[in-house]
Amino acid sequence: MSNLRRPLVAGNWKMHGNRAMAQQLVTALRAACQGSAVEVAVFPPALLVETAVSAAAQALTVGIQNISQHPQGAFTGELSVAMAQEAGCHWCLVGHSERRALYGESNQDVAAKFAAAQAGGVTPVLCLGETLEQREAGQTEAVVAAQLKAVTDNVGVAAVAAAVIAYEPVWAIGTGKTASPEQAQAVHAFIRAQLGVEGEVTRILYGGSVNAGNARALFSQPDIDGGLVGGASLDAQEFINVVQAAEQ
Ligand code: PEP
């Protein structure tokens, strides 16, 4: 692994938690993260970002799960990149499969959000991944390549390489069904190759039912630089165990 690819383990809380939970969970992570070789980030619901940022005390970073592609205006219910940045967000998830599937975000929407986040000083974590039907039809590479191309066509390869990519097969998210280390490695290597030489320094995380039991085998693959963790990030000890798996 390139020295520039410091392992990153990020927790996506989705729509879970409250202020007390955010305070406790981030405080527990802070102690475990101090001095770690692994970078740790959490993505709480937007209303809990400021609680998480103050509890993090800079030992870990905080991101937002979604932003608008627009800078401001009549977009009821949306949040801008500048708002996220002011609240202390270092990161923003873009293109999470739940946003694509439940809220109809297209590859073009994802590309616009990616560009807006990066222009506003918030690092995008670009989520890519195929459905089970697409995998079974042998379309995994074509789907992931098209998702990636929509963004590289918009901002260029260098901009994507400077961000973080999360490969998250949709069939493995929240299902308890993880991609095997070999399946994940194959797609990570494919994504890296799409970015050419720039890809050598790009962090590519794996997401999809990562937990303390399977993290080490996944993270030991040469092109897997850490994880985007959903369910297992809601339990402090489980998530700390995942972080520790990335240290080895
Ligand atoms: C996710 O939400 O990005 C995710 C990977 O969830 P889980 O770990 O629960 O599958």
Topology of helices and strands:
Elements (H helix, E strand, L loop, with lengths): L7 E5 L6 H15 L5 E5 L5 H8 L4 E4 L16 H6 L4 E4 L2 H7 L3 H13 L3 E6 L3 H5 L3 H16 L1 H5 L2 E4 L13 H14 L8 E5 L7 H5 L6 E4 L6 H12 L1
Parallel strand pairs: 1-2, 1-8, 2-3, 3-4, 4-5, 5-6, 6-7, 7-8
The structure holds phosphoenolpyruvate.
Description:
- This protein is of the alpha/beta class.
- The protein has one domain: Alpha-Beta Barrel (TIM Barrel), CATH 3.20.20.70.
- Helix content is 43%, strand content 15%.
- It is built from eleven helices and eight strands.
- The protein has an eight-stranded parallel β-barrel with strand order 1-2-3-4-5-6-7-8, surrounded by five helices.
- Helix 1 runs parallel beside helix 2, helix 5 packs across helix 7 and helix 7 runs parallel beside helix 9.
- The longest helix has 16 residues.
- The relative contact order is 0.15.
- The model has no long low-confidence stretch (mean pLDDT 96).
User: What is the helix fraction of residues, given as a range?
Assistant: 40-55%
| The CATH fourth-level homologous superfamily | Aldolase class I
CATH architecture: Alpha-Beta Barrel
CATH class: Alpha Beta
Oligomer: single chain
The structure class reads: alpha/beta
Number of helices: 11
Q: What percent of residues are in strands?
A: 5-15%
